[in-house]
Amino acid sequence: MNGLHALFKPTGIAIVGASEKVTKIRGRLLKLLVDGGYQGNIYPVNPSSPVIQGLPAYPNVAALPDIPDLALIAVPAQQVMQVLEECARKGIKAAAVFSAGSAADPVGSRLQDQVAEFSQRTGLRVLGPNAEGFIDTINRVIATFSPTMQMSSPVKAQGPRQGYVSIVSQSGAMAFALYSRACADYLPIGHLVSTGNEADVECAEVIDYLIEEGSSRAILLFLEGFKNPARFVEVAQKAAAAGIAIIVAKVGKSTAGQRATVSHTAHLAGSDMAYDAIFSRYGVIRVDDPEEMIALGSVVSAGILPKGKRVAIITTSGGAGGWAADICEEAGLSVPELHPDFKAHLRGIIPDYGSAENPVDVTASVVEDGGVTLMAILKEVAGTEGIDIALVIVSLVSPERLGQIEAPLSALLSGMSRPMLFHSPGTSHDSARRILMQAGSAQLNLPVFARAMNKLADYSDFLERRRPASSKTGQPQPTVTAVPYHRDLLSDTDALLDAYGIARPAEALVRTPSQAVAQAQRIGYPVALKVISERVPHKTEAGALALSLATDAQVAQAFEQVVANARNYANDPSIDTVLVQKMMPPGRELMVGGIMDPDFGPMVMLGFGGIYVEILRDVTLAPAPLALADAHAMIDRLKGSSLLRGARGEAASDVDALAGLLVATSHLLNDAHQDIGELDFNPVIVYPEGQGVAVVDSLIVKKTIVPEQATPACHTATAAGG
Amino acid sequence: MNGLHALFKPTGIAIVGASEKVTKIRGRLLKLLVDGGYQGNIYPVNPSSPVIQGLPAYPNVAALPDIPDLALIAVPAQQVMQVLEECARKGIKAAAVFSAGSAADPVGSRLQDQVAEFSQRTGLRVLGPNAEGFIDTINRVIATFSPTMQMSSPVKAQGPRQGYVSIVSQSGAMAFALYSRACADYLPIGHLVSTGNEADVECAEVIDYLIEEGSSRAILLFLEGFKNPARFVEVAQKAAAAGIAIIVAKVGKSTAGQRATVSHTAHLAGSDMAYDAIFSRYGVIRVDDPEEMIALGSVVSAGILPKGKRVAIITTSGGAGGWAADICEEAGLSVPELHPDFKAHLRGIIPDYGSAENPVDVTASVVEDGGVTLMAILKEVAGTEGIDIALVIVSLVSPERLGQIEAPLSALLSGMSRPMLFHSPGTSHDSARRILMQAGSAQLNLPVFARAMNKLADYSDFLERRRPASSKTGQPQPTVTAVPYHRDLLSDTDALLDAYGIARPAEALVRTPSQAVAQAQRIGYPVALKVISERVPHKTEAGALALSLATDAQVAQAFEQVVANARNYANDPSIDTVLVQKMMPPGRELMVGGIMDPDFGPMVMLGFGGIYVEILRDVTLAPAPLALADAHAMIDRLKGSSLLRGARGEAASDVDALAGLLVATSHLLNDAHQDIGELDFNPVIVYPEGQGVAVVDSLIVKKTIVPEQATPACHTATAAGG
């Protein structure tokens, strides 16, 4: 068990600042704890009265007759430190500090630093400040003042298969907002922890505690940013090993500042993409909105994940079924042909004017016999092959629809090996939602259903890949480099790239037109010319490159032109060095890059090049180093990946060579992450299967030690793109 | 008034098949009509009993003591035609046929044809068959058997500004599903019409009726396809003129069959894109899911549209505010800096640890004084400038939050000139939703809020553009063509394109290597060679083109090669014609195309070329002919449009020239739509501002009269792409 046992499973609880008035935070805290049925001793602490809410109260912490594990501190911010010191002196092991003030304002910020120092010094673990507390519905510890607790009642996990879902949130309001939504949908919430400003205890550590505690099957995490990103990476791996799903809402995409950068790669990445990369690598499921978060919790709680993306849609309304099919396909699910046996059986059950084709229109008439026909249909759906998910569309406006088949429906669902979920096109009655959740299903709105299933199928695939026996697994292997990495390699990009086996087209540096012609003849026509200068990092806009030169005369003339353009652009008459490079035949243009994320370290980027890269941002990021399987997964995450794999009759590209380049680049980044700031291979031309890739242009930006100085762009040894 | 007055505002109603049993459709129909408070005479018709549900009943239609306008027919499908004939003989003017059977099954299909013929012959207007009836809550005509009516109660439009929303649906189940959701959200529904199989009355005609009837401010349309697309186009224009929003769910994207086609354009279009094009042209708002449909109805019903996309987010929870900002920006809204005066005023109201920056974190403390501070904040928000939409995020879990400020909130909202909407991160109490709707606001989930506002701002812009006084307006102008269109032009594509002023690069047809060299010298190097043959429509895969040829020797050699490749590919040794074309310098590659949509006629397509076109489908379609403003709107609908307009420091492209090409192409398509099946200009190279466009390759597919024969590809006069 990690060190949070005293915080979350305390033997006794002191409430410092407890009040008689239950309309106030300080009174509600005590009342909720008592009403919640906490089994340990409760000690109200307040000098104003010897009895508070019927319990003996104490004037201060020192006067307590016993040493409780935990103190809940609801005194004004100015008194918090004094109370904490008293707690430490008393031997109390943990505290939750509710007092307000965010880390961003002066008062809150000072308290933040003081609490951090205090906790470090005394070992007393502190939740908050500015936390809204925590709850444990299983052991009945309700340590919060949130009024939501008086309006939303938690339910227990039901039946042999349902598991608890817990909520961990840096925002107190979001913690209880999710809680109220979960309760309204009869989702069994085990723990809820509002971590507030995280002066000491941070969300990753809380998740770690919940994994060890063992009652949670899914953790809903509302996140603004990690205090200790590396700790989260560890915890995410532990959760994956334990089969506990972390479902995360990471906010702050829109406000994430874009760092000033030289390379394309860093500009495209932004800090939020690094979170996506980490989440993707470690099987953390990212959600887009609160409703989706609850939906994912519901399905995971029910204990069965979809093993793929094939949906059978069973609908009492053809119109709703058509809409569902559209929404499913839009979200990346498939609505395939169903098994002939299933269709034959179904035709024997449904009216002639129905349809046994997916989406299966069983017609509204099947619900008119008290549920007998509906159950017969659902049994057929449960038994058929070739699908991963069943979606049943039926009106749940009335409580009777499911009420009359509650027992057989529960029995059917508990025996199923894949999810069967329900959608009511109109409103859904409270009791219908309860019956479904307790039977291991849920009522979901269509877009949420589609997105949730898509993500859970990916998560299921992730869990499958990480099994030791899986053929899909891939652990990063050290790349065999020609020369081990050492910092001197940075002074010669050619040697660095050679060391990692990253090949470039034939090329030579020249300083005169006649040298250019001689080298062009040696390399073979056509060639490209490119000015090499730190003052001209992006050649296209400077007119500092010439492509497809086919004759000696063209080369000589182009040399004069590009040098003149570059001198003019950079206002630097000393520019004279030009790279002559083999003009590579056209192929798919991609870019491979590297950034050093301040939170998560070296990351490899892959994206399509050309005009769309900036606008559509079809780029993907992954933490270095990469195993070959990781590199293939990166390629598959591109929206345009099917193009590389040979979609629509196009020739397949050499994805194996591209994956190899990604792995090599990832090792370079990992080895040199102390020295390199950014890396761009752009364009990387990918040729048809078996014909390799060409790194046509490269830019490596070294880390600089002088912070105020412009980052120097390292000599770009290979070149011909822009 | 159109001809549906007798159907929807009947003086009297006969219910044929009416039954005593209110659990059955035939009994419920009568009961709902009576309970709903219908003011005209009601005549149950059933030979089994002289009194049904306390009303005098009649053995058949002929026996009725009076001639009601409308008959509701709920007899078995086999008896429907007989009853309809009786109705016609009696002089009844309209009927609604509830009996089942879809147009797709044999029984339903026969009934469908019989009803269509009957209606044509007698002039008796028929709703259905397979309809679920209609309701008019304002005049209290409840002509349906839907059990939803017993569970959902409609509300009246409130206050001076709220307007009614009506539902028109080809799916009966979806009609009442939307109705139940609308009622749960206190959205005032005026009319609901389930049009069923539309043997006679179709949804476009119903919308026309509703526009003339005048009580609807928005119409929610659930659509599978139009019986008469041209009628819908007329009605949509009428709705726009009347300021009535049509909010449509068009289903069937995923099942829309892709026609077998020769050109890229038709392949990319699919039939669903034509609907998007028509909706976009006529200001019809398309939704993605039921929740969004209700949300849009709510906001339109409240009477104020957003005039732009700038959102001020006012939140009691920083976490929820951050999430909202992410979701808004993702959906295309902006969350801008707020006015300095607003920020200054707000700082005087909110605690120090709040933030006056957008999203404005007013902190949870502002709701602790009975709503006084919250109202003060909302007044500041209502009064500030520089925003188009206010989003207030506050917990509505409890009924008290808004209950205590109902009167001042209503007063504030009724005086606002832009929408102020609310979001409760947790659940929202029923009474809070009621208060908001009645005050002209709504509680919306975040993704739905963001998508709805984005669409309504576009709709508002559409309404603005169609005002006669608007400078943004654009009516299609006849293009001045060199030669008026006549069918003979099709035999010479060059003449056809010249007639419409569509210029191509310099070129010549040749049949020998020496001719090729001579023409290349005349045109000027570099050149491209391309084999011209109907057997080789796509040159790249046949190896039938050669690019960037720079010398006589290269041209001569390439001639032999491309001819050999093409002969081999097409297995046709007679191929000998090659086009020599000026090799155009690189630029932005787009494609312009044309299709003849079976529903909506000639359509122009615009898309980015290159590798992404197939995968990302960044293409847009618009009905021909285009005004210049339409052409610019098409360009702006591309995801990559900002690139053409000069985003991220790139040079702006010549969008005016591109728009001109679109207009010319649209007139060509419009003039020649009887003769042309498909048209492809691919690639169209767009050069920097002022430097024009080049139609590098063109393919025109003539319409063929023999249906079984392969569509012949017309000679591709200009060429060099693939």
From TrEMBL, chains A, B:
<dbReference type="InterPro" id="IPR043938">
    <property type="entry name" value="Ligase_CoA_dom"/>
</dbReference>
<dbReference type="GO" id="GO:0005524">
    <property type="term" value="F:ATP binding"/>
</dbReference>
<dbReference type="Pfam" id="PF13549">
    <property type="entry name" value="ATP-grasp_5"/>
</dbReference>
<dbReference type="GO" id="GO:0043758">
    <property type="term" value="F:acetate-CoA ligase (ADP-forming) activity"/>
</dbReference>
<comment type="similarity">
    <text>In the N-terminal section; belongs to the acetate CoA ligase alpha subunit family.</text>
</comment>
<feature type="domain" description="CoA-binding">
    <location>
        <begin position="7"/>
        <end position="102"/>
    </location>
</feature>
<protein>
    <submittedName>
        <fullName>Acyl-CoA synthetase</fullName>
    </submittedName>
</protein>
<dbReference type="InterPro" id="IPR032875">
    <property type="entry name" value="Succ_CoA_lig_flav_dom"/>
</dbReference>
<dbReference type="Pfam" id="PF13607">
    <property type="entry name" value="Succ_CoA_lig"/>
</dbReference>
<dbReference type="Pfam" id="PF13380">
    <property type="entry name" value="CoA_binding_2"/>
</dbReference>
<dbReference type="InterPro" id="IPR003781">
    <property type="entry name" value="CoA-bd"/>
</dbReference>
<dbReference type="InterPro" id="IPR036291">
    <property type="entry name" value="NAD(P)-bd_dom_sf"/>
</dbReference>
<dbReference type="InterPro" id="IPR013815">
    <property type="entry name" value="ATP_grasp_subdomain_1"/>
</dbReference>
<dbReference type="InterPro" id="IPR016102">
    <property type="entry name" value="Succinyl-CoA_synth-like"/>
</dbReference>
<dbReference type="Pfam" id="PF19045">
    <property type="entry name" value="Ligase_CoA_2"/>
</dbReference>
